[in-house]
Write a sequence for this structure.
């Protein structure tokens, strides 16, 4: 028997930023593409039904996605429940609004500090029976708080009913990394320490923290994107192929990979903050929160021992792009008297803003001399995502498909990796907006450099 579909979708934080930016567009997409036809209940402190409808419309217009027919259907499905998240009446109202629904999905698009309270409110009002819960990141602030949160949630929901979102897992190009690796056996023999010299991952954003100063002050780049999005990319790149067809086979392998990553120490990290961050509203005038982090990871298993993985992620960088480069080893000796440059032989996987997978190789320049040039063969190129990650993930959670969600053991292992570098255990360097982070990041990569800066998308170059 398949996993039952949910029969109502409840989302907390209906007037919030995430609902505006991601949830309304995804809901319209689900109505349009997948015929979503269940009650959708938006819970918030102050959102009347009219307000939610107009927020949804503004969101879709602003994103250029408004589709009259689908939007009309969405507004027919939409309901509103108003009230404080610590007030039992809010949940009584919700239970009433759920009516005949017996298998609701609750999406907590709210500040994580309220997860426990809302879970308790749902349980006390009888809304958790046969339900699922979707939680936004960050899931905890460190290992101890993530463990504590898991303990609280497990009082009300079994692990199989908990869906922890990391929207990078819903990204087409991140799925394509796994697909390409495991659909083409030619990669398997070279995908290890014998052939790979290093791996680089860059997640650069040319914008700052904008109106999220208060949120970002509690996060910083390590908690915001390294612990989750970047480590998920690492796992797609380096995990073993899943064995067997058990539903958890993929997540079992991911979990094993996270557990094999050596916990980071201060020597493995360079933190930076862009000039001007301290004047962002909500940011402390002497904040030491990092808006950039570069880390050097190692994986303690037979496949990857000795292969460094360099990750850097930052705000206010030179451009917006996320990209992976797997660098293959150089020839053991120079057969033709030329020094083959490092990084000639590689595989590049571009995650955003456009999507591509290319192989970098060295070929001979036509002519008498045995001299070469670097070329890239593009295997696939797409302008961008077809389906927004949130739409894919919400659809999966409604169907009960958990493969693209983070499991408890993985989340905790991911925190274990970064736990030792959280806070102010390392110096903070500054960098100019538009730079590729602070100079010190170049020392971290050392002989495995240079850092490979992603190019702008072709239309802009
Ligand atoms: C979010 C972070 O999870 O991911 C943001 O909180 C970041 O700070 C965003 O900008 C990046 O997502 P994407 O899909 O634009 O790469």
């Amino acid at each position: 028997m398949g996993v039952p579909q949910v029969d109502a979708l409840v989302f907390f934080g209906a007037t919030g930023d995430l609902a505006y930016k991601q949830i309304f567009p995804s809901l319209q997409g689900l109505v349009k593409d997948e015929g979503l036809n269940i009650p959708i209940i938006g819970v918030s402190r102050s959102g009347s039904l009219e307000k939610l409808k107009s927020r949804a419309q503004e969101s879709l217009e602003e994103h250029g996605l408004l589709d009259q027919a689908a939007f009309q259907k969405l507004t027919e499905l939409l309901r509103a429940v108003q009230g404080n998240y610590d007030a039992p009446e809010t949940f009584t109202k919700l239970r009433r609004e759920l009516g005949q629904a017996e298998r609701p999905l609750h999406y907590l698009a709210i500040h994580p500090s309220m997860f426990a309270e809302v879970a308790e409110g749902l349980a006390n009002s009888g809304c958790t029976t046969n339900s699922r819960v979707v939680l936004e990141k960050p899931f905890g602030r460190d290992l101890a708080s993530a463990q504590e949160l898991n303990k609280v949630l497990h009082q009300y929901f079994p692990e199989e009913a908990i869906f922890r979102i990391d929207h990078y897992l819903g990204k087409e190009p991140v799925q394509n990394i796994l697909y390409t690796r495991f659909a083409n056996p030619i990669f398997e023999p070279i995908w290890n320490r014998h052939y790979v010299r290093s791996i680089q991952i860059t997640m650069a954003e040319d914008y700052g923290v904008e109106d999220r100063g208060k949120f970002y002050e509690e996060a910083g780049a390590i908690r915001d994107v390294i612990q989750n999005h970047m480590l998920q990319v690492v796992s797609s790149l380096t995990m073993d192929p899943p064995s067997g067809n058990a539903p958890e086979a993929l997540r079992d392998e991911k979990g094993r990979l996270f557990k094999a990553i050596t916990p980071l120490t201060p020597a493995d990290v360079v933190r930076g903050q862009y000039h001007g961050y301290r004047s962002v509203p909500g940011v402390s005038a002497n904040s030491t929160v990092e808006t950039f982090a570069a880390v050097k990871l190692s994986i303690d298993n037979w496949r990857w021992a000795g292969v460094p993985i360099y990750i850097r992620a930052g705000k206010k960088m030179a451009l917006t792009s996320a990209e992976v480069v797997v660098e293959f080893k150089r020839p053991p000796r120079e057969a033709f008297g030329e020094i083959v440059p490092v990084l000639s032989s590689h595989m590049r996987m571009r995650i955003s803003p456009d999507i591509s997978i290319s192989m970098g190789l060295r070929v001979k320049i036509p002519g008498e001399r045995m001299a070469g040039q670097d070329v890239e063969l593009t295997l696939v190129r797409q302008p961008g995502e077809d389906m927004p990650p949130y739409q894919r993930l919400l659809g999966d959670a409604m169907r009960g498909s958990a493969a693209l969600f983070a499991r408890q053991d993985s989340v905790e292992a991911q925190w274990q990796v970064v736990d030792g570098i959280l806070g102010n255990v390392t110096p903070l360097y500054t960098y100019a907006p538009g730079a590729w982070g602070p100079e010190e990041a170049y020392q971290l990569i050392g002989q495995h450099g240079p850092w490979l800066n992603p190019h702008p998308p072709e239309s802009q170059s």
Q: What stands out?
A: The two ends are 52 Å apart (CA to CA).
